[in-house]
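Narrative progress, year one. The postdoctoral researcher (J.K.) led the effort to move from monomer predictions toward full complexes, under supervision of the PI. The following entry was the first complex the group processed end to end, covering 784 residues in total.
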Amino acid sequence: MRKIDSIDFFYLSMPQIFDIGDGSQDALLVRVTAGDRLGWGECEASPLTTIASLVCPMSHSACKPVAASVLGERIERPEDIAAIHRKVRQNSMDLLQADHALSGIDVALWDLLGQIYEQPVYQLLGAEKAYPKLPYSSLLFGDTPHDTYLKARHAASLGFGAVKFGWGPFGHQGLQHDIDQIVAARDGLGQDRILCVDAGTVWGTDVEEAARRLDVLKACQVTWLEEPFHTHALRTYHALSLRSGPVKLAGGEGAHNEYMAQQMIDFAGVGFIQVDTGRIGGITSAKRVFDHAQASGVTFINHTFTSHLALSASLQVFAGSEEHRLCEHPGQLSTLAYKLTPEHLEPDANGEIRLWERPGLGIAPDLDVMKQYLVDTTITVSGKVIYRTPVL
Amino acid sequence: MRKIDSIDFFYLSMPQIFDIGDGSQDALLVRVTAGDRLGWGECEASPLTTIASLVCPMSHSACKPVAASVLGERIERPEDIAAIHRKVRQNSMDLLQADHALSGIDVALWDLLGQIYEQPVYQLLGAEKAYPKLPYSSLLFGDTPHDTYLKARHAASLGFGAVKFGWGPFGHQGLQHDIDQIVAARDGLGQDRILCVDAGTVWGTDVEEAARRLDVLKACQVTWLEEPFHTHALRTYHALSLRSGPVKLAGGEGAHNEYMAQQMIDFAGVGFIQVDTGRIGGITSAKRVFDHAQASGVTFINHTFTSHLALSASLQVFAGSEEHRLCEHPGQLSTLAYKLTPEHLEPDANGEIRLWERPGLGIAPDLDVMKQYLVDTTITVSGKVIYRTPVL
């Protein structure tokens, strides 16, 4: 019987982290081994806090370190991953960060299973073929509307058929500034490309503040308004959805389990559900959300703002669907996140992205790059070292 | 202007942690200072992981360490605590464990504000007086129905008018075992006392498995069935609530923000909402849930399975209500959790509990006991010590 022999978490970081909405400035890589096979995953999470959740001493029967429910478990078939999921969620029910740790482990286990079966993950998930996706370039708003205009023109010149702007000053400098930003984005992009706007939960639970942007969003034919509110504010989302007309609401990246995303589908009135495989519980949970979205007439889209290893993991989930065609493509990766994989999922001449037809995720991180950005970390409890950066 | 000068987290633990559902085996205490005033709080959370969330390096603008949004902030009025809440939730949106860290900090800030105003926290929350509460003793099911019978008799002999059994073997040994356990609890307690049952989310999302216990729950006049399912499984809760008749559903301890608890009230059909002040975002978030519960005709009850410092914090939230009368009273505290406070909130001759009429929480932890159980912890990142157990 093949069992999980090791789980290693690697904390990587750019030399300096800036106070901007760029989630690719650090990374938490997961390496799992079982016999002679090895899998890689990535958590979209605070590296240090997630490492602590992997190795912390047990507090009680429902607050155990995540490693306790993974090490030594059987890994031969997809059902084994589902069983590990159940075990982690039961044994670490009161350990909040556990969902983020599980996410990267789950991705690594699917990659490992792909190595065993010599199949891409999407095939293990039951899909016969991987359909190409239409990537939208995910960009931060410029500091000024003119900066945003230039960014939009640049994205259009790269051939992206869809662009999303978010974060930066948006929502922080008043209504007129937001109107100017959206108009500038549309101007830079031209009329034929898809434009989306990401508000980064800036309006909390304030429906009226969000609603004041609806006119310009409609006039600029914005496809979706993403995260106007806190992920959990279902009623607030729903209230805005009744007034947003052709501008659909989108959200879900904050979901750290499939239930949260399912509730956004069921109760929040979203037209697009965006989950991050590196947060929601990995490929296993993301696939369950995809199934529920498909059954509910809601469009599934990945949320990815990190490396192309994470991007591959995200796309495996809905690669088998021809219908759910858009995908997020992180457009401003840090050097670390870009160099982490030796190849990248870039748009082809049709502006489309295709997954690698190789086992598992189809890509492994570059170990030399990992070594270069590795953050040396040690955690000592009662005189005993319970975590030390593992050897690569 | 009075500002927050320091936040210190102290990891305490029994010498040995057992793999049982007793959440009082370790503790995470929070000390906050502002000028010449000091406040104490407690997180109901994995100590090491929560410490990491306080001090971790920033990942990006929405994934900052919790301390970054608290240190140096103004603390003069209740509104200042609400402002700190907003700041933490915005700056640490992608740091999952942040809600648990915020919870203990929030409690400590209310305690500190009570020291400044020389008022109990419940008065700062707007209540004129603190009504006594009827405590139910919260006990683990015995290993056998006979053990449970003896525990129930003992609780009755101590004068408790209400007892809740949960966890232990319940839900893990088949239907007949669960029936025998519930019958034994009722037999031991006699007919006149309130009996509640806590399933500890054991049935996941399986309505039918839970429904098989409804007959015995009804026959034994069980007041509520707690946590039959995962906290996020709102539809599953709702489906069972339509069949449970006089046995109300209860839940909410897993909520780590007020939205989650509000959704259980709005969508899950619960009759009782139970939030843990040490997890949900402290007294601030718990009070918002109380207000929503009261407006919705749902009964609010604290979830408390740790020290009497945490118990005092929980009770401040709804002390001003005569109507919401039941409260959880942890009945099997570890030596650490029991000795942590020099006094305890024990039932009086009427079987009722009354808060201390003293500033803040009305109690501070015993520093000698803290020293005795303190767990020496060090976290080093890139050669720099970012956390070391603070001096008491």
